[in-house]
Amino acid sequence: MSDAKTIERLRRIGWRGHDLPGEGRQVARVAAQHRAGYELHDGEQVFSAQPAGYFLKRGLDPAERPAVGDFVEVEAGKPPHIVAVQPRRTVLSRAAAGERYERQVIAANVDYVLVLTGLDGDFNPARIERYLSLVEGSGAQPVVVLSKLDVSDEFTRRVAELKARLPEGTPIHALNGKDPASAAVLHAYLKPGDSAVLVGSSGAGKSTLTNTLLGSQHMATGDVRSHDSRGRHTTTHRALLTLPSGGCLIDTPGMRELKLTGEENLDLFADIEALAENCRFADCGHGSEPGCAVQEALRDGELTPERWRNFLKLRDEREEQAAMLESRLRRQRGARPSVKPHGLRGPREKE
Prior knowledge:
- The protein has 351 residues and is an alpha/beta fold.
- It contains 8 helices and 13 strands.
- It has a 6-stranded mixed beta sheet with strand order 10-9-8-11-13-12, with helices on both faces.
- Helix 3 links the parallel strand 9 and strand 10.
């Protein structure tokens, strides 16, 4: 097969590169990862492969290993072996659970992150803000998707609540994940060559929506508990799927824990940062200090207590994760920390 035809084939699964690797190597995309190895897609077919020994080294940063969505270079063999991961143009990651700092890649090389939340008891604006905070530095565009439109009569109020709470211009779509006509609004994010990752809690309707977009019962679905609208993990691993619309969709298991990495800017809360600039004192703690613009906004209703509390929670978590990251970097370089912590403002007072 000629280079032109190979590149055209790879374009269909989202490859944006220009040069193919040298003789004896081919490019493929990671479609799934299992304990026994990887499933790769070359634009025409799916095949199994094993990672080269380098990726199995103890102490290797997990973020350096192939992840779902990665484009990798593969050498022929029985089985074929992944020998290199091509540079990622976007990467969505989270801090892994546990006391040691490790970053876990959720998906690589995606154009959109579809943040799915049910309009039933799963609806949680604070959780949506957490997802969007992680998406900020990924290079991908967040899209909020509200599912289960067919079982909710409060979607108008909830959409209005999110529009008032999230940055202007954030795409928000309410739909019925079982209805192809309703789900068609997402085709704009799943055009040929585009890639999206679908994230959300268990029971939000990810597998149901995926099946609708596929036009087939590909993913297992499950019931949700009536008292909190949560479900069991019907998706057990991340998987990249090619859709009839021409795009690629990465479905993910429900995530019980979604920890910040420590490198978030929290631009989602830029309005709160702007408020803090108007405080009388430069080192205002935003408690009982006189002339606190944040407290004034809380009293006037310009800032809701729920959003303020969520900002504080995410900010403190980011600082904790940033400290863990810096400690890890210190051990690696054997030097004193050089990264200054984030904060609303410095310790000096205004002139």
